[in-house]
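All the exercises in this workshop are built on plain-text protein records. A learned vocabulary of local backbone shapes supplies the integers on the structure line. Once this layout is familiar, the rest of the handout is easier to follow. An example says more than a description, so a record of this kind follows:
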Amino acid sequence: MFKTAVLATLAALFAPAPCAAAGTEVYIGVSPGIEVRKTGLALAQFHPSRPQTPEDLALAGTMRGIIRADLLYSRYFDIKEDPLAPANLDTGKESLAWWKALAGHLITGRAQDSGAVWTFTARLYDLSTGKVVMEKFYQGEKRALRRAAHLFADDVVLRLTGRRGVAHSKLAFANNATGSKEIYMADYDGQNLVRLTSDDSIALLPRWSVDATRIYYTTYRYGNPDMFEIDLKAGRIKPFTTFQGLNIPGGFSPDGMTMVMTLSRGDDPGIYTLNVVTKAVKKLLKGYGVSSSPTWAPDGSQVAFVSDRSGNPQLYVLNVSSGTTRKLTRFNWCDSPSWSPSGEWIVFAGRETTKENFNIFVTDLTGSQIRRLTYKAGDNEDPSWSPDGRFIAFTSTRNGRRELFVMDADGSAPHPLTELKGQSFTPNWSP
């Protein structure tokens, strides 16, 4: 019975664990319209604001290194650079002409480290005209340094491609390195790792709010699997829903006012909506079966979920207005679906037969196109799309323990995200 299997799966996820022991020219994604041909982009050496100041020079190098890594990771640009090239913020015609032979645009930067506060100015030049097409100024404390660099890189991506970048996005996930499962947050590149909770219990399944200022997660902090809210701006954590039984967040409607979630309320787990202001709940599915793992379509019209209503847990889609459902898979097991930002694809973890490990798959909305993204590399689960739909975060046991990985949306270039000890679970990529 799926009820027993679902509860067993949840029990395995929530079970306490012991402390851990000590370039191509064209990007090809799974979704139509994602192919992007790389364009030439020159990146000058960044300069210190005060000549012969080691602190300024070091900061300039740090900012340049972060921006460079972000732009390379985006796959949009063919980065042109030369440490001997003429470059500064007051770039003259001769310098621009030197760079014009290599690329269509040029980035320059200048930084100043005053101890408690730093400043950074960056420019983007159109080399065909020699004009500055974008200039940004940032100032802040040391903890905000990486975010400023990420924001500038994403501004460049948006200006030159018309697409939003992911460099300033973050991932929330659970990890048991402390001996308890706690919620962590990291930048998209694995840096700025922060432990958000100290529940000293079992915390899992984080989900971001639409504006990325809050994270909702399930915790056994008070004995029941309640849902708590992490307010990142206020630095405050508090209970959000405490219904009897399972309280598991699934995701938000486009306006951020309604959450889809899994509740049991003393009965079989089912799919509900929750008004985040009034806390009023409404059951979405009628009839028999255990259903869980809901994920909302980007336009709010449909919800994907997993249910045992036809036997083994399969992937379904619910039309919210009509209440009709359709089955997308015929696997031995399916779990943890996540809807792509474009609305064209659903990524999920699955096992086609009992003899296989769990792997990551994507399917279209008819179920006629199912593509496998991982092969013969341990168990791969908990997929979550990047906000631009070009990357997927997931967990994998391919290296002997359950680690957080990121891969391209076509399954290529999988790599571990952090070196955090212990086992990692249920990542969720921020908007």
